[in-house]
Amino acid sequence: xxxxxxxxxxxxxxxxxxxxxxxxxxxxxxxxxxxxxxxxxxxxxxxxxxxxxxxxxxxxxxxxxxxxxxxxxxxxxxxxxxxxxxxxxxxxxxxxxxxxxxxxxxxxxxxxxxxxxxxxxxxxxxxxxxxxxxxxxxxxxxxxxxxxxxxxxxxxxxxx
Amino acid sequence: xxxxxxxxxxxxxxxxxxxxxxxxxxxxxxxxxxxxxxxxxxxxxxxxxxxxxxxxxxxxxxxxxxxxxxxxxxxxxxxxxxxxxxxxxxxxxxxxxxxxxxxxxxxxxxxxxxxxxxxxxxxxxxxxxxxxxxxxxxxxxxxxxxxxxxxxxxxxxxxxxxxxxxxxxxxxxxxxxxxxxxxxxxxxxxxxxxxxxxxxxxxxxxxxxxxxxxxxxxxxxxxxxxxxxxxxxxxxxxxxxxxxxxxxxxxxxxxxxxxxxxxxxxxxxxxxxxxxxxxxxxxxxxxxxxxxxxxxxxxxxxxxxxxxxxxxxxxxxxxxxxxxxxxxxxxxxxxxxxxxxxxxxxxxxxxxxxxxxxxxxxxxxxxxxxxxxxxxxxxxxxxxxxxxxxxxxxxxxxxxxxxxxxxxxxxxxxxxxxxxxxxxxxxxxxxxxxxxxxxxxxxxxxxxxxxxxxxxxxxxxxxxxxxxxxxxxxxxxxxxxxxxxxxxxxxxxxxxxxxxxxxxxxxxxxxxxxxxxxxxxxxxxxxxxxxxxxxxxxxxxxxxxxxxxxxxxxxxxxxxxxxxxxxxxxxxxxxxxxxxxxxxxxxxxxxxxxxxxxxxxxxxxxxxxxxxxxxxxxxxxxxxxxxxxxxxxxxxxxxxxxxxxxxxxxxxxxxxxxxxxxxxxxxxxxxxxxxxxxxxxxxxxxxxxxxxxxxxxxxxxxxxxxxxxxxxxxx
Lengths: 160, 715
Known about the structure:
The complex is a heterodimer.
Chain A: E1 4-9, E2 12-17, H1 24-31, E3 50-53, E4 56-59, H2 65-68, E5 72-74, H3 87-94, H4 104-117, H5 123-130, H6 140-159
Parallel strand pairs in A: 1-5
Antiparallel strand pairs in A: 1-2, 3-4, 3-5
Chain B: H1 29-38, E1 41-47, H2 49-54, E2 70-76, E3 82-86, H3 95-107, E4 114-118, H4 135-162, E5 169-172, E6 175-178, E7 183-186, H5 187-191, E8 195-200, H6 224-228, E9 244-248, E10 257-262, H7 264-267, E11 273-277, E12 280-285, H8 288-297, E13 299-303, H9 314-320, E14 323-331, H10 334-340, E15 343-351, E16 363-369, E17 372-377, H11 382-392, E18 400-403, H12 418-430, E19 434-437, H13 440-446, E20 453-461, E21 467-475, E22 490-497, H14 512-530, H15 534-539, H16 545-558, E23 569-578, E24 581-591, E25 598-608, H17 615-634, E26 640-641, E27 644-645, E28 663-669, H18 687-699, E29 705-706
Parallel strand pairs in B: 1-8, 3-4, 9-19, 15-29, 17-18, 21-22, 25-28
Antiparallel strand pairs in B: 1-2, 2-3, 5-6, 6-7, 9-12, 10-13, 11-12, 14-22, 15-20, 16-17, 16-19, 20-21, 23-24, 24-25, 26-27
Helix pairs in contact in B: 3-4, 14-18, 17-18
């Protein structure tokens, strides 16, 4: 394998050294300094490391760098724009949908992917889409409310 | 490392597993560095209350005070910036927000005018740790006193500077204002670049609850934006120049001894170092994949000597090794009362070990400089970890600095400093800063667990169905929540310690989860045996108005009196008090008649903890407690055999997920006439017995073990 790989993260082309055997999670955190994506289990069970690859939510702990070269990667740091927070980030604050916040970035990334697929997800769709994300502090009810609130904001924006 | 056992008799009971140990030495370093760091401005140093209690009768504030007697710092800089320093730490309970609310209230400032420095042993006064629901009842009043003293002093300075009567001045929004002339001075201006320092005591008068303007109202997490944008730095996110990744070689089973180690292959890997010191073996590498490769390349031979006790034999083992430890109550004559009771009911309740599984595992970054070490780590006891490091490296404590960035939760599970010591040892050996983040499997295996236990209850009732005798024996869980909350003239309440096959320690709510589960299940059994409504049976044995009030509030919200049972569903109620909080929980469950799957449909909790500080965060804590408690109630269980944990992953250890969460309904019972108690723990106590009692109501099956139904019910 090459001594370095290039990844497109949050719209920027970035270089990752010694990519062999390196997880996307490790590359994001240790090579690119994007530590908003968290390690929770290393086995794809908790969702703390969720990022978007070509818009789909993936567990960055299970993917190797080589598998995502040439694809578009979005981490939590890439959501807010000059216009402000992503509607789901804002909704998390408005619904107080966090305690320790360690799961929050993964939750938000799973939620963003869901909202991209379903502008008005039902409660059952939210539960189904987010089932792989663990919040050990138990703020699930608030997270569901935040996704619903963000969906409302999103609809208003697209109608307005 | 052995866990120090210490029983602390206090108004709020801290149980034997709190792993408390006071440091041997405390140095003056922190006060000096604090004042140097803060520079000009006004510093208020508050004498800790317990110190004053010991010195009662000395009269007035002490004139000279040692640093270890300072309970809190508060500083107002020349620009008016207010900095508060406390040894309490933030693990998701949002104490950073509610403590800032207390200070903002006293200083007549907006919440965002307060900066909190928490859990940095060089900057904050000594603190035993963040546990026992003590931050709100003990630390908030201390910070209020510091704020109130600063406010009063600012008024003195204002009267001097403006040459007016002090009584004509007010503190408004960071300024001392003379309304009549319209003149005012900012808090920072009043210090005029001087370095002012004053030591105060607990006699300072605080703002009455009714006059609170910032506390008592909902406030969102003060630094919430950092968390939703991914900019907050957790302990595992800390980086330093030249940082290496560390991994530790773990034995294949508990108690295994290292016989031989072949590290030749690992040492041959680029940038890898292997560190062996006694029974400690670790590796460092420039990257995570290389550290993993190095660890896998180590070839070790172990002598295994695991305990033969397994999850299957746990309860008989605990019973066989039980030794009386503490008699919490011995009133009347239980044996005689049982002998003459109309009905005697005896049952046993078994409690499995469970894991905290904070989503951020234990993590530490250690860096040495000139013989001193700084460690960033996730711990509920920064000063405890400083003491551990001091002992491990034979260093005076002023050569050790522990910094606790707001961490990815704890739930009582991060009282110890394993990762800190491991990172510090590897950093010392390699001369580089080293980061150690435990894997999930390590966290599941090498941390400590919520104790398993066996609880025997014998009760006696008279012909009218009134309790006449109650015997409660808890083996190994602990003493929290063990005291009988219901009226009974003859009672014996005992805790017995036992030989635990696993390392055990604090867990949210401590043993009150186990003790209240057993008591509230037993009370439910008695009510059903009599054919009496479970709530009515409880209420007629209750003398405590606060407990009765939360039962009434929860029952009303659920609609207990008019509840309508449909096939396969049932309702349960349970409650208890611990650490100054009162909780009553109702649950409605549904049991699938074919699969036996248990689903909690709805849960209602009424909670009272005195004057409410932050309704929004209180609600969040209660909801979170119910969800976390639901896991331990229904399915969480540590499996172990031959000195190994069989459930060391989220695939094998089930925690509550979105689909497990019922409709949650929280009733806050506000008592502004009472001091505020903590709220992070006690709300967890009601959910397990409420669910168990609801399962009985639905199916007629009485479950007496936690977890109740790890694989559903056998129907």
